[in-house]
Amino acid sequence: QPQLVDSGGGLVQAGGSLRLSCAASGDTFCISAMGWYRQPPGKERELVAVITTGGSTYYTDSVKGRFTISGDNAKNTVYLQMNSLKPEDTALYYCAATLWVGVPRGASAYAYWGQGTQVTVSS
To answer: DSSP 3-state assignment of 56?
Structure first.
């Protein structure tokens, strides 16, 4: 089964940028899409962005125009470039992988998860 390791979080000032990485290993051939979720303090986990192996993408409204999800199939790695960060982007960010076809948005569709990487945006 796939294993995911996410990294790249940190502390940044509002308006700054970070790039998160998610490296997949193991049985990656079965993955059809990968996504980034985040969980702000005291709130539920929410979907941020998804990319399929075919290159289709999805973004939640609050990050459109600021975040970009991309993938490097040769490296089995997915990235989340986050620009113009806001304090409300502060959260624990998780990458996730699904075997479902399409652009799944529900967390239950994602069977494999990274350990999470903390993003903190100061005002």
So the answer is: coil
Please name the residue that has the structure tokens 């529900």. 106
Dig out the tokens for 95 from the structure. Answer: 């990458």
CA distance 104 to 99: 10
For residues 13 and 9, give the distance between their C-alpha atoms in angstroms, rounded to a whole number.
13
Q: What is the 8-class DSSP label of residue 9? A: -
pLDDT digit string, tens, across residues 87-110: 999 999 999 999 988 888 888 999
Other Cβ atoms closer than 10 A to 53: 14
Phi, psi for residue 97 in degrees, rounded to 5: -130, 145
CB contact at 8 A, 94 and 34: no
Identify whether the C-beta of residue 59 lies closer than 8 Å to the C-beta of residue 49: yes
